[in-house]
Amino acid sequence: MDRKSVVILIVSFVLLLLWFPLVNRLYPPVPQPQRAGTNAVSNAAAPGTTPAAPAPATPSHPELPPMASAILPAVSGPETTLTLESKVARFVVTSHGGGLKRVELTGFPEAVGCSKKNQNATNFAALNGDAPAPAFALLGAPALQDAAPFKLTKTGDTIRAEKQLTNGLVLVKEFQLNATNYLLNATVRLENRGRTPLGLPAHELVIGTATPIGPYDDATKMGLMWFNGAKAEATRETHFANQTLGCIPGTPRREYSSPAGTNYLWAAVFNQFYTIIAMPKVPASQVIAHRVDLPAPSRETLAQDAKTVAHPFGYLTAFAYAASVLAPGAQIEHQFTVFTGPKEYHNLARLGSDFANGIDLVMEFDGFFGFFAKALLLCMNALHTFGLSYGLAIIAITVIIKLTFWPLTNHSTRSMKRMSALQPQMKALQEKYKDDPKKMNLKLMEFMKENKVSPMSGCLPMVLQIPVFFGFYTMLQSAIELRGASFLWACDLSQSDTVWMIPGLNFPVNPMPLLMGVTMLIQAGLTPPAPGMDPTQQKIMKYMPLMFMVFLYNFSAGLTLYWTVQNLLTILQMKVTKANDGKTAAAAAGAAVNPNVSTDPKSGKVTLLKKKKD
Questions:
Q1: For residue 7, what pLDDT is reported?
Q2: DSSP readout, 183-205?
Q3: Helix, strand or coil for residue 559?
């Protein structure tokens, strides 16, 4: 490749790396406009002013319309909170909305890795933090809302929240600790204590809000999920962004509605490592979600740390219930078992088996690649129990996988070399039968069969390793075991291994993907070219690994560590194979001039023959 081509290649590579930072700097993303009627609690109307009336919603279903006024109205009076505390979590119940304001997981720090240096030891990872409405708040028509706070009382391990609306409807909520870790029992009752029937309009009962893990979280792994007994379906920002092919802008969506009339066994909100799963005693008939804006960081915070997300958002998710009429003295009761904790597969799988509802599907380990993800996660945790760090466990798994595929890869490499050596004869056959393509293909197949080579042998090892790679990718997306696990310079194997931010561009320097790219280039240089490949195509394939480095540049350090070690082992195997082939060729040459030497054509083993007596 000439100097001009090298310069063009380097410039193109740099532009690929800097494309997204440059676009975000020149054209910063514009936050979605806040719809009328979706103001957060903190956006209450000023004293003496009348709040604007919410815009009417367009029902997507005649019985269960999405609620335009999805967020709680302003609540008068000071806020009071009560706390339930188990061995693993603190549940904070608020009088503003009468629900779970926050769940703190006392076994998991709020910050990990390099960022934990300035972290207070009493700050824990929180669910539903900064959400505009507490979990199990009642949302919907104005008849179900007023500005009065709930009255909170605590008895033992139970907190009760109660208030009476202006129309006489009484709302009673009870939250009780469950004997199992991370579980909470929640009950919501709507009571008609009057003497006349009460019309109960369509309403929503909040499950919780999916919120980012921290100020640096871009929320790409945040979303909601539901399960109806037959399938589980997750919804993320792709739905709300409404972009064609993921890049062509469309009209942003603020709401999501699942198919109505289906029995939903559970619904969940989640981020990369934590989840809230609400399991109703009686299956709900619809799940509704709203994209909501979260409190923005201060200008001082943004100025001090450019990695902080300027426009955080979340997904408020709720079960929807149809309108009904409540007779005098009657009540409607909704009972839930709630899981609020980390996405630990072994724990979720056990609970899913106990409840027979498959809540471990929130890990998204379903499908073909999910099988490999579960196997790799169990293997990694098993190696960790023997004292290996998670970084060393990933390396050990990579070595085991490489040794498993070693014979196949070795055979593939030798087959490709034989194909290259036979290329002149194959070209002669192609030239001889060029006027008869059918006969040419037949002769080529016979020739390759006689010489025991196959054009697919070079692709087979890579095809077989694709499930392993995607299994690693799937597993590392939600493996909380890797959160805060350090290895070499990487402070957190679940995130990219950024060691420096380039001033002005705010572009991260991640050494692991760079090492991965270098090893891929070396591997490409050692790989024999495919028979019959055009020289230009050979050059393209040689530098194609740079594209993978660009795509994986901001992926987790655990994934790039796996790929880097995989490349190094492949390079080692190529060196060993080449050395063995050289010894075999030398032995064969020696046997040609020395009749007393015998060489095994498969293993290359040289044996001295006994001289025959005259």
A1: 59
A2: EEEEEEEEEE-SSS-EEE--EEE
A3: helix
Q: What is the predicted pLDDT for the residue at 614? A: 46
96, burial (CB in 10 Å: exposed 0-12, middle 13-18, buried 19+): buried
Question: Please, what is the Cα angle at 315 between 310 and 319, to 5 degrees?
Answer: 165
Burial of 608 (0-12, 13-18, 19+ CB in 10 A): exposed
Q: How far apart are CA 334 and CA 433, in angstroms?
A: 78
Percentage of residues of the chain with pLDDT beyond 70: 72
Radius of gyration of the chain (CA): 31
CA 13 to chain centre: 27
593 vs 80, residue with greater confidence: 80
Residue 116: how many other CB atoms lie within 10 Å: 16
Top-ranked range on mean pLDDT: pick from 359-373, 422-436, 455-469: 359-373
Whether the predicted pLDDT of 46 surpasses 50:
no
- Of the options 3.40.50.2020, 3.30.200.20, 2.70.98.90, 2.60.120.200, the CATH number for the domain spanning 67-363: 2.70.98.90
Q: Which residue has the tokens 């690649």?
A: 369
Summarised one tens digit per residue, pLDDT across range 267-281 is 999 998 999 999 999
Q: What residues pair up with 185 in beta bridges, in sequence order? A: 176, 337
Q: How far apart are CA 314 and CA 119, in angstroms?
A: 24
Short-list 112, 88, 114, 92, CA closest to 101? 92
Cβ 550 vs Cβ 17: under 8 Å: yes
Q: How far apart are CA 224 and CA 226, in angstroms?
A: 7
**Per-residue pLDDT tens for 514-538?**
888 888 888 877 766 655 555 666 6
C-alpha–C-alpha distance, residues 385 and 389, integer Å: 9
Nearest to 9 by CA among 546, 434, 430, 507: 546
Kindly report, residue by residue over 137-152, the tens digit of the pLDDT: 998 877 788 888 999 9
Residues 357 and 265: beta-carbon distance below 8 Å: yes
Average predicted confidence (pLDDT) for the chain: 77
Distance CA 591, CA 608 (A): 10
Query: For tokens 């289906």, what's the residue?
Result: 262
Q: How many residues does the chain have?
A: 614
| Local structure of 350: helix, strand or coil | helix
CB under 8 Å to 96, separation ≥6 — which residues?
41, 72, 75, 79, 134, 149, 150
Give the C-alpha separation, 221 to 476, whole Å.
Answer: 12
Q: Retrieve residue 457's tokens.
A: 């042998």
Under 8 Å between Cβ of 198 and 190: no
Distance from C-alpha of 572 to C-alpha of 552, rounded to nearest angstrom: 23
E-assigned strand segments in 62-217: 81-85, 89-94, 100-109, 124-127, 138-140, 151-155, 158-164, 169-177, 183-192, 198-200, 203-210
Sequence-ordered list of residues with C-beta below 8 angstroms from that of 571, at least 6 positions apart, any chain: 519, 522, 523, 526
Q: What b/e sequence results for 123-135 when a residue is b if at least 16 CB atoms lie within 10 Å of its CB, and e otherwise?
A: ebbbbbbbbbbbb
67 has a pLDDT exceeding 50:
no
CA-to-CA distance for 582 and 578, rounded, in angstroms? Answer: 6
Query: Any idea where the domains of the chain sit in the sequence?
Result: 67-363, 390-590
Query: Can you say whether the dihedral through the CA atoms of 491, 497, 502, 505 is positive or negative?
Result: negative
